[in-house]
Amino acid sequence: MASNQKSDWIRKADVDQTRASFPELFFDLVFVFALIQLAHKLASDFSATAIIEAVLLILAVWWVWIHTTWVTNLLDTEKEPVRLLLFGLMFGGVLLAIALPEAFGDQGLVFAAIYSGMQICRSVFTLYAFRDADQPSFLTFLRITLWMLLSSALWLLGGLMELEGRLVLWTMALLVEYASPALRYYVPFLGRSPDETLDVSGAHMAERCALFVIICLGETILTTGRNATEHMTDDMTFAVFCSAFLSTGFMWWIYFHHGQEKAASKAEATSRPETVALNLFTYGHLPVVAGIILTAVGEDFSLSHAQEPSSLKHAVAMLGGPALFLGGNIWIKAVATRQFPVSHIAGLVLLAVAILIVPVAPNYIVQAVATSVLFIVALWEYLALRRVSASTA
């Protein structure tokens, strides 16, 4: 009887179960809040050390979110135990976001403990859910749990160290976590997890990642609007706000007009859903989300220091954010269509060339150039796709 009850926690292969549920969307808001917290911290301190710290924290926040997405892909979020897991992780996510700005300060051990607790508790819960229902999946999550225990030890030890030691140990922890799927969670005596063990719904993964991207873009617009109200006395604020708004709109178009649809189709039609989901969503969407966050930081710089001479520090955010976003889209579209979008590659070249104007241009000009490049990429791809559609009609 207990076996049947646990089996009920696993997602059923019907249409409704492939759709993102309301608890999942509620959960996403917490992690977007964490990323916005990180953007605010970067905008206030964009030193080399702060950038390194931010990279590690983005990797950590993404890893919690994407692993939870995999679990909710496999489990039925309409079941009360799974919902309670999500709400528990949501509470942990809020605490994680609160501790995040001081993760490399006084809250290091707190951040590490919350992060590790979320990762281990979720893995143990899923391990229990599959215990008597699916032996290969159970063994996969046993391996995942052991890898999480190893990385958690590094997180907790890093939380006890000073800045240099913390950077080293937390970097090691993230290397362990990000390498583990590629190594198929190899564990001595258990071996590697076989390919395509988990019954992944590609359509669900595609929708979850797309919704997360759109929430990130929406939060970027709200944050930009709030920053604009603080600088309305500057004559350039309205123009810079319009540029920032347009850049967010162009990013939406670049991701959703073609790439997201192709990614969803690829994930749904493939005979290797687990491998494709790993490439398209676990790794492929990370630079997209990171690019949106870095773009938000650049928009903050352009609003608060619109007419000041630009610098390499400001350019890293204003030009680097769109470049990272385009790089992620190249990855996704190459995996989904096996073609490299020429428009995106041209956009990366233009953003690289735009660095030449940084020494002689104010921030609002650099911001406008970044927006123009995103516009060129969006228009180029739109016209290219129309031409292909017309030739095949």
What does the model show?
This protein has helices at residues 2-7, 22-44, 48-74, 80-99, 108-129, 135-159, 163-179, 202-229, 237-269, 273-283, 286-304, 312-318, 320-337, 342-354, 363-392. The chain folds into 2 domains: 22-183, no CATH class; 202-392, no CATH class. The protein is mostly helical and 393 residues long. The protein starts with a helix and ends with a helix. It is 76% helix and 0% strand. Keywords: Membrane, Transmembrane, Transmembrane helix. This is Low temperature requirement protein A. It holds the Pfam family LtrA. The chain crosses the membrane at residues 21-40, 46-65, 85-104, 141-161, 167-187, 237-256, 276-294, 314-332, 339-358, 364-385. It comes from Ensifer oleiphilus.
What proportion of the residues form beta strands (DSSP E)? under 5%
Rg measurement, Å: 22 Å
Low-confidence stretches are none
The secondary-structure class comes to: mainly alpha
Question: How many strands, which pairing sense, and closed or not: the largest β-sheet?
Answer: none
Counted up, domains total 2
Shape: globular
The SSE string, one letter per element, is HHHHHHHHHHHHHHH
Helix content: over 70%
Keywords: Membrane, Transmembrane, Transmembrane helix
Protein name: Low temperature requirement protein A
Pfam family, one: LtrA
Organism: Ensifer oleiphilus
